[in-house]
Amino acid sequence: MTGYEGLRLAADEAWRRVLSPDRLRVAVTVATCGRAAGVEDTLAALKSEVAARGLSLDIAVTGCNGLCHEEPLVRVTKPGGDSVLYHRVTAECVAKLLDEALDGVCEEMALAALSGQVDGLPSLDALPFWAIQERRLTARCGVIDPDDIEHYIATGGYSGLAAVLDGLSPEDVIARVTESTLRGRSGSDFPTGRKWDFLRTAKGDSKCLVCNADEGDPGAFVNRVLLEGDPHAVIEGMAIAAHATGAARGFIYIRNEYSLACERMENAVRQARERGLLGENVLGGGLSFDVDVVRGAGSYVCGEETGLIASVEGSRGMPKIRPPFPAQSGVFRRPTNVNNVETYADVSALFLNGLAAYVSTGTERNRGTKMFSLSGHVERAGVLEVPLGTPVERLIEAAGGVPGGRSLKAIQPGGPLAGIMPASLVAGLALEPEEFRPHNVQMGGGGIVLVDDTACIVDLCIHFERFAENESCGRCTTCRGGTQRLVEILRRIARGEGREIDLERMRLLGGMMRNANCVHGQAAPTVVMNSLDFFADELRAHIFERRCPAKVCKGLVRYEVVGGSYAKGLPEAAAICPTGAVVPADGSYRIDQGLCVKCNACREVAPDAIAVVDAFVAI
Amino acid sequence: MTSDPEATTVEQFISDLSLGDGEMLAALHRVQERFGFISRPAVDAIARHFHITSARVFATVSFYSDLRLSPPAETRIEWCGGPACRLKGGENVRIALESTLGVKLGEATPDGRVELREAQCDGSCHQAALVWVNGRVHGPIGGADAVRLARGVSSGERPTSEDGDGGEGS
Questions:
Q1: Any chain B CB within 8 A of the CB of A220?
Q2: What is the largest distance, in Å, between two alpha-carbon atoms of chain A?
Q3: I want to staple A524 with a disulfide (CB 3.0 to 4.6 A). Which of A123, A181, A468, B60 is the partner?
Q4: What is the pTM of this model?
Q5: Residue A363 Rama label (left phi>0; alpha psi -120 to 50; beta)
Q6: Which CATH number is A157-358's, of 1.10.760.10, 3.40.50.11540, 2.160.10.10, 3.40.50.300?
Q7: Which residues, listed in sequence order, are joined to residue B46 by a DSSP beta bridge?
Q8: What is the enclosing helix (H) or strand (E) of A568?
Q9: Which spans in A20-93 are helix H?
Q10: Which residues pair with A212 in a beta bridge?
């Protein structure tokens, strides 16, 4: 396969300059999470400072390595290869970094040594967040420049595709995928090999592949880290799938919120085309396959595969009733296969490392690794890749657990429709789909939100049901009306107007919604159903005692001045109040309950003087 | 029919796109990036280009929350509706913004200068609770920071990159 060999030779040379540069190399992690932490300012400050000082060094860019909570991250590599990772390098810190890190080590910001021996610095593997991980899909994330295809090729990229085109029949490829136990990583959990076989044996020309990069679950960002950090892994996985299924056309549907992922993927597609890795007769191996990026426009239900197909076609993203299944009639009525970002990346890893390496970790049923994002009440928010079957507790531990000495109340895996489970069930729970199902919870696509004991279950139910209501496509009354009714009932409970019969009615509604057209409506009541099972006491306290134990539900609490006239901050509290509800009274202040909107602003500026108390219980 | 200069421009903008290649959304994004929103004449022009009815284009535009049929305000505050933000006092931020600006999510101030809308989580959860002001993250913020932010933008102050001190709700 001379086509690939040629590409590899050129790429290896480029990669050598990254690993062991001739002059200083400063690589900045530019990703959506880093942008939120101000990395664009860091990069701008770095460029201007380097120019002002006339420094001779190269500035490079990488994707996020999963340490979102440490961003902005900067990696300094010296000629010879010693490399140190610096964290929380904000724009103001750039001068200090350049003062100290170019000749020695800037200890204040140093996080870990990436290669070589650096005195006093732990290696990245020594960090708890890293030690637990087995990085296969994320091996390149935070390491390569995602806009440089040569970095991908030099690290083994497209060698799996080259090997597939060199000698494996479509049946061989599918057999190997089936043997790997790979199942849809979006949470569908459907065997990927079988799904591919549906398309391979489907009748019809111009078959399509779709990559579902509409990672809409709030709090889930595993796909984003892959798309932004290693876009070619997705393209290669799709090209292997194209060979296996006979597809000629691919669409990568990326949600609009991921604008950086869209840019990087569009660039990656262009580079792959230029090098003959997409298009006619790929690598001279007879495959003709090309890919286009489709940018979504803000709709959660487009993550449902038939909704996504409608959106690719330019229509309203409303899910369709099946059959026909996408393998029979998908994008523009062509036979179509839809897989998740991580599933395609997994295929690339499988054909890069081989079946034996792939199945060397994980559980009997679920081989390999899975990416998880942790957010919410967690010390270290970010993305980790661990073997399937890893205990949830270990994952939480690696991320530093719940901060501030609070205790874990619940976890919400897999997005707003996947459910919520109490901390008591987390003990001993392993990260594989089968472990979650008996509790009527889905593991889902990899997002895990940690919830501590300051949260209220009714408030969370309102949050998720309101989301489901807003994002319902509106086609079936079961979903549209069901979510509306759930939100109405929950809001009433949160106002202290709950009724005993509400508990029964929510169960009735939840059961009825299982008959909705698509998974959106079917799964929408999951969080409420789980709460009825696991948090019944808390719901009952709202209904029967008109009390929110966590003091979160606005209708069941009021703000009161408790510190008297000497309490610090009351004049400031009066000044910050947007409605003028903190009013002078008898030499001190009181809260005008008619004006108070309960935004908590006063309590933030005068925490000792203002308290949240139960609205319907005497102090 | 195409005498409207804007419609002519729109058609030029999207002349390379075709419906069969899944490029309807690309066309809508392009028009919105150029004009800030998708006007009724633009809807008609897009429909002509793709040889479909204006109703179909309108149906698509009105389905997606990021496509808009009216011009954006000068200052756009987007409130993150994600769970991590909710857990860290996002509701306080919403209430504070709404009360200070005198508008609800999805509305603009009467002078049309500031608009408040809900946006979806993009996984910047380490900065929760957060809002985006003209696309730039402000976070972590609490109710008090949100009041200051809203007062600042209402009085015509340019939004700064200063983040709040991270007051958390209870």
A1: yes
A2: 89
A3: A468
A4: 0.95
A5: beta
A6: 3.40.50.11540
A7: none
A8: none
A9: 32-36, 39-53
A10: A253, A340
CA distance B18 to A466: 36
Cα–Cα nearest to A381, from A390, A389, A372, A391: A372
- Whether the per-residue pLDDT at A309 is higher than 80: the answer is yes
**Residue of B25, B50, B58, B141 to mutate when probing chain A, most A C-beta within 10 A:** B25
B83·A449 Cβ contact <8 A: yes
Give the three-class secondary structure for A56. Answer: coil
Q: Residue A435, Cα to own-chain centre: how many angstroms?
A: 21
Q: Which residues of A touch B82 (CB under 8 A)?
A: 218-219
* Interatomic CA distance for residues B97 and B146, integer angstroms: 6
Contact A255, A296 (CB under 8 A): yes
Q: Give the CA radius of gyration of chain A.
A: 27
For chain A, give the mean pLDDT.
Answer: 95
Whether A159 contacts chain B with CB within 8 A: no
Q: Which amino acid is present at A190?
A: F
User: Which CATH number applies to A457-544: 2.160.10.10, 1.20.1440.230, 3.30.365.10, 2.60.120.280?
Assistant: 1.20.1440.230
Q: Who among B87, B91, B93 is closest to A451 (CB)?
A: B87
In terms of CA atoms, which chain B residue is nearest residue A416?
Answer: B83
Q: Where are the domains of chain B?
A: 5-63, 75-154
Task: Report chain B's C-alpha Rg in angstroms.
Answer: 19
- Secondary structure (3-state) at A471: helix
Tokens of A610: 């203002």
CA distance A605 to A378: 24
- The CA–CA distances, whole Å, from A524 to A340, A353, A519, A530, B80 equal 21, 39, 8, 11, 20
Cβ count near A568 (within 10 Å): 13
In one letter, which amino acid is B165?
Answer: D
A-chain residues near B146 (CB < 8 A) = 599, 601
CA-angle at A556, arms to A464 and B107, nearest 5°: 55
Cα angle value B7/A309/A221 (rounded, 5°) = 100
Q: Which CATH number, 3.30.70.20, 3.40.630.30, 3.40.50.300, 3.10.20.580, labels domain A554-614?
A: 3.30.70.20
Question: Nearest Cα to A339, choosing from A225, A473, A182?
Answer: A182
Q: Which of B92, B73, B74 is nearest to B130 (CA)?
A: B92
pLDDT at A277: 97
CATH superfamily of A10-126: Glutaredoxin (3.40.30.10)
- State whether residue A298 sits within 8 Å of chain B by CB: yes
Q: Are A472 and A301 in contact (CB under 8 A)?
A: yes
Dihedral angle over CA of B24, B26, B27, B28, nearest 10: 90
Contact at CB, A576 and B144, closer than 8 angstroms? yes
C-alpha pair distances (Å), A427 with each of A249, A336, A395: 45, 40, 12
In the DSSP assignment, the letter for residue B167 is P
- Report whether A431 contacts A390 (CB < 8 A): yes
Among residues A164, A147, A338, A289, the alpha carbon closest in space to that of A231 is found at: A147
How confident is the model at residue B160, as a pLDDT?
A: 53
Q: Which helix (H) or strand (E) holds A372?
A: strand A369-376
Q: How far apart are CA B21 and CA A251, in angstroms?
A: 9
Q: Which residues of B touch A315 (CB under 8 A)?
A: 24, 56, 59-60
Per-residue pLDDT of chain B (170 residues; tens, 9 = 90+): 445 667 778 989 999 999 999 999 999 999 999 999 999 999 999 999 999 999 999 999 999 999 999 999 999 999 999 999 999 999 999 999 999 999 999 999 999 999 999 999 999 999 999 999 999 999 999 999 999 999 999 988 765 544 444 443 33
CB A226 within 8 A of CB A237: no
Q: Which amino acid is at A393?
A: E
